[in-house]
Amino acid sequence: MKILLIAPESKRAAKKKAIFVPFPQASLTILAGLTPKEHTVTIVDERLHEIDYNGNYDLIGITVMTATSAHAYQIADEFRRRNKKVVLGGIHPSALPDEAIQHADCVVIGEAENLWKIVLEDFQKGQMQKFYKNEELPSLTDLPLARLDLLGKGYLLKNVFQTTRGCPHNCGFCSVSAFNGRRYRHRPVEKVIEEVSQYRSKMIGFLDDNIVGNPKYSKELFRALIPLKKKWVSQGTVKMAEDEELISLAQKCGCICLFVGFESVNELNLKEMHKQFNHIEKYRKLIENFHRHHIMVVGSFVFGFDNDDLSVFDETLKFIEDTKIDFATFNILTPLPGTEVFEKFKATNRIFSYDWTNYDFSHVVYQPSKMTPEELQFGHNELYRKFYTLPKIMKRALWNWRYLGYFLPASLYYNWVSRNPHQLPNLHD
Ligand code: SF4
């Protein structure tokens, strides 16, 4: 059987193909790894490559995020017009399966690992169901090696792995706990080491939502990584910098950059979003600690919380520049289906657009509390332009001379994003 797995682009950005994107999506390479050997799998990342609608495929699988859903449905419709069977999965179909099934023969609800082989067997028997639902989250113990070999060219960082899933926290705007659960699951350290060891490239990435969610596991993993002499990037929380043993081990095993969700410089916003474990008064010291360990910080900030007024943009920029955060991503609060924020805004009629294409963290789809949608949009776009000017990038490059080979391409990517904010990857979806 020939299977085509697609990571679709969002409808808007699809007008123009990117020359490169930061990294691939982990889900499709893992599904490909789970596919029995007798089948042939092709992966198309539509951000980089065209889809061949007339290709000789038996089954089409599409992973769908909210921002890509409108276009994913078009792709699915196009294949179904050609009498191909389509399976949709991912965060958005899991949150809204009844919507997704309008465009598919089958919707997989929740993480697909436990279900994928069953879907394939049922399809071969001509008995594929409309819905497959995970009753329990899959263990990561037997996760196969991801088929990175099936990816095309065009990634800033292609060799990416997953060590953990789930998050014990439940931040109101985040879909991770709804989709991946609040129980923290992790792969056996020896499996991660076996997988990482197969790749010769020095630079790798861990696509975890929070690589330090369980410090005991993280320390074990970091110790085992040291002999491999890799350099790596991942996502985590400021908690890494609170634990001296953890951050020292991270440095020793090659962590050079961590994506950290600071979200807001306003304590009230953090409280409302249940992210009180971020203590603003500690940020400065913790960022200094990252830098002391030569770990660059990508600070992620969200705008449009109910306590944000127009002053939030300048205050955040000042904070970022004072603390010397190395990169920043600026996101507009987005009420993703399945999250608490979605339910709250929907119940109070604050959502004015259900065009999912705009649910990309770069567009306003709801009525903010203390500014107009236009002011929120403008303030967000301006921050990118103000932070990623070429003179400021060069200034930051001086203190990041150690990692210039990584720092400059990534900064120039964000400089490009500052002129095309709709091209941002969906880091939170
Ligand atoms: S924002 Fe981060 S800490 Fe909060 S629920 Fe999502 S993954 Fe967990």
CATH fold call of the largest domain: pyruvate-formate lyase- activating enzyme
Low-confidence stretches: none
Small ligands present: iron/sulfur cluster
- Beta-strand content estimate: 15-25%
Question: How many structural domains can be distinguished in the coordinates?
Answer: 2
* Second-tier CATH architecture of the largest domain: Alpha-Beta Horseshoe
| Helicity, as a percent range | 25-40%
Q: Superfamily at the CATH H level of the largest domain?
A: tm_1862 like domain
> Span between N and C termini?
31 Å
Main sheet overview: 6 strands, parallel
Number of helices: 17
* Structural class by helix and strand composition: alpha/beta
Which shape, going by the Cα principal axes?
A: globular
Mean pLDDT, all residues: 92
Output the radius of gyration: 21 Å
* SS elements, strand count: 14
Tell me the strand order in the biggest sheet.
Answer: 2-1-3-4-5-6
CATH top level assignment of the largest domain: Alpha Beta
